Amino acid sequence: MRKLIYGMNLTLDGYIAAPGDDIGWSMPSDELFQFWSDQLQATDLSLYGRKLWQTMSSHWPTGDQQPDATPAEIEFARRWRDMSKVVFSSTIATVDWNTRLVAGDAVAEITRLKAEDGGPMDIGGATLAGAAMRAGLIDEYVLATAPVLAGGGTPFFTALDSWVNLNLVETRTLPGGVILTRYETRR
């Protein structure tokens, strides 16, 4: 059975994007960027909601070809482009870069994918991750909490019908005051 990991950068008040989908507050340090790149390297399959997919696919397919791309960005772009991905959307018709499109029941498909043999999967996008969270499918949460308050926007966590007990796995302070925490779901 595969492990499902949900992780993103978020504000201290719990938002992954400020109002208007503004993520300008989220400028990762080299160390945080390398952490996310290493996470990507250790991931067998990435699951995306439509909005996050459109954000990622608008930059990373050619991110390694940008004149100002750092070595870390070049490495991340290559890893992202080459890895297997699944996008869940009923509003887009095509995807590219080792990606499969699923328009049906996301929770049923994520449950099926988790039951397969294979390495870890990550899930991104608040709506998609929220559905997996409510279904009890998330095994690990990775929060890179920035010292900024957005006051509103897209929350990292969704409303739940019952609480989820977690075990703290790691806490690390990164440059710029970002606190990285990892929690495993206690089952």
TrEMBL record:
It comes from the Bacteria. Residues 2-180 form the Bacterial bifunctional deaminase-reductase C-terminal domain. SUPFAM superfamilies: Dihydrofolate reductase-like. Coiled coil: none annotated. This is Dihydrofolate reductase family protein. The lineage of its organism: Bacteria, Bacillati, Actinomycetota, Actinomycetes, Kitasatosporales.
